[in-house]
Design goal:
By secondary structure, the chain is an alpha/beta fold. Helices cover 33% and strands 23% of the residues. It has an eight-stranded mixed beta sheet with strand order 1-2-4-3-5-6-9-10, with helices on both faces.
């Protein structure tokens, strides 16, 4: 196995302009953040838009997303970044998590990028649970993305989620009750959610049609998603795989995050 170690991290970008906005469609209010170069703050359309999705229990306002947008928009012109909160995450108003609503959120954000920002190319940078939704989206909805970068993808999402539910919690679910899950913010799930999660295992599906346009990065010290599972998934689908020596699930080490950002930005721009 070849491991990548960052020896010369890219310098952090500067002058990012951020704007919070909502996408109000189909009875939903999706909390979004637009991140662009400060020099482009009067610009209304962008040829290239990167949609960033976060992991379970996280939100759109992470430092990693800001750093990604800084590096991207300082190096390449005519790029915008949209981050958004999944249902029940961050500033989202919903209380009960469901996979269909996550899929709808992603569709509506893609539609916004295409219609409001008039994006010619839409990219996807997703982490963990967000990566699971993206991989599921490709199979069930099709692929609207030019390229996709997945960091710490939840290729065993059902098992990972189950590890955070107690025996008492499972007993309540089986009785038809809802339970609270999450970290800083709690959300409701029921047995239907777990059944839905279990019904779609990304490792049971083939991604050959998308493989050339997907990059996967995963830490060798990931404590939530075993790297062997992700490497096997990538190899079985001929997807480019970058193992990052010493990185944990959220890539908390700044050097590991800087490496991921650099690799993803160059992958997106390669061939343009």
């Amino acid at each position: 196995m070849k491991y990548v170690i960052l020896t010369n991290p890219p310098k952090r970008g500067i002058d990012i302009w951020k704007k919070n906005f909502d996408i109000n469609q189909q009875g939903y209010s999706i909390r979004c953040k637009l991140l662009i170069n400060d020099n482009d703050k009067q610009t209304r359309t962008f040829d290239n838009v990167v949609i960033v999705t976060h992991g379970f229990g996280s939100h759109k306002d992470t430092a990693g997303t800001v750093h990604f947008a800084e590096h991207l928009t300082s190096k390449y012109k005519n790029y915008a970044v949209i981050a958004f909160d999944w249902p029940c995450h961050g500033a989202d108003a919903r209380k009960k998590l469901s996979i269909p609503e996550c899929m709808t959120y992603l569709t509506l954000v893609v539609d916004y990028a295409r219609t409001e920002l008039q994006a010619q190319n839409i990219y996807n940078y997703s982490t963990s649970f967000g990566a699971y939704i993206t991989l599921r989206y490709l199979i069930e909805q099709g692929n609207p993305f030019k390229k996709i970068a997945l960091r710490s993808p939840g290729v065993n999402m059902y098992e990972s989620m189950s590890n955070h539910i107690s025996d008492e919690g499972f007993a309540k679910l089986k009785k038809g009750k809802e339970i609270q899950v999450g970290f800083d913010r709690k959300m409701k799930i029921d047995q239907a959610f777990m059944d839905d999660l279990k019904s779609f295992n990304v490792r049971d599906h083939e991604y050959f049609d998308f493989a050339d346009d997907i990059l996967i990065l995963h830490g060798t010290k990931d404590e939530m998603i075993p790297i062997d599972l992700v490497q096997d998934f990538a190899e079985n689908n001929v997807i480019e795989f970058v193992p990052v020596e010493g990185a944990n699930h959220p890539f908390q080490n700044p050097n590991h995050m800087a490496l991921a950002i650099h690799q993803i930005i160059e992958f997106f721009h390669k061939g343009d």
